[in-house]
Predict the structure.
Amino acid sequence: MKIKENSLKAVANAINTKKKGTLMRQSAIAKLFIVTLLVAVFVAGCDNLFESNEPQSSNSVETQKFMKVAENSSSVNSFTPNYNEEQAMALAGSLGKDVYPIKIGQKMNLIEKNLTLEKDSTTATGTLTQKFEGRLIIQGSFKQPTIGIRQTVDTTIEKTFTSVITRIIQYKKVGNSGNDEFDWKVDAVSLPYGGTEGENIQIVRIILTSQDGTELVIDDPNAYLFKVGREKIEDDDEEDDDNHGFENGFGSHGHAWKNLLTWYKKNQTVKLTVEVLSTTQDPDFLSVTYGAALNGNTKSKEKFDFVSSQQEGSIYRKVYERKWRTNYHAARMHAVINAFPRTVVYDIDTAVEVKTWGIPYRVK
């Protein structure tokens, strides 16, 4: 009987132990569920905080999607083909009398990009910065050219540099699928501007004068934003009431870029005036590259002519001008101005300093 009683006690103890284990597992599962619920509530709360216009890191998934929207915009991308001048080394116009560069160009490689984003339920504003690694290529001669004889290249100099280009991008919400890449589109873009570090030269103002004498003055690239309108056939733009068809022009919409005052007729002469502040009395080196489509071909490059200089303390305010002719076909284009201190181009030992502005324009 004793053995039987001991067996019954053992069985009872085993049952109690099993019950305790079950209760402990159930308690652990309950705790895990509570923790998971709290995490979900916290994440939802973070989403609500984001809607309060706090700047968002470029490493976030949502900002990466807005970066993708910008990268798919031809209005944003039109700057780059004219910024990379590898196929536009030749210059129109005399380069100078003292030293003798013959061909000058820069090869630009995008190495880093960052988008800082602020958004609400229907609009968003991003500051896009693009970091480029560049090679300034100078082909020239140390020999003074003889009048009437074409100058030949006997030396090539390469200088490496890094520049940062900044622009403002405005987005608007056009859908509610839950995917930002499809629900948002680029609505307006500012002029690109930037360059290298250094205070020896600064672009302070540009003036575009059309053939009929109409002037457009721009002294703040960030303040000049133009609406891109319809960039693709499927785009919906309720404000785009003057364009209902797409023209040829490297596949672009010939009448897009609404509110863009820099539009000109085909094969029209346009005068571009650039005002700079410089630390040296000698003329600087300014050029404009234009006419390239998104494939980077068919671009032209010209050197600005020096017009005047006025000393203001230790600084010189200088004016440069250049005329160019627009394309023979309707298209959206981008002109890029590069301003170098003179010694960067004419002295093999001077490091690269350059300031850059981009000017979108359309031909119709």
About this structure: Residues 1-8, 32-57, 91-99, 239-255 have pLDDT under 50 and may be disordered. The chain has one domain: 59-363. The longest helix spans residues 2-50. The two ends are 110 Å apart (CA to CA).
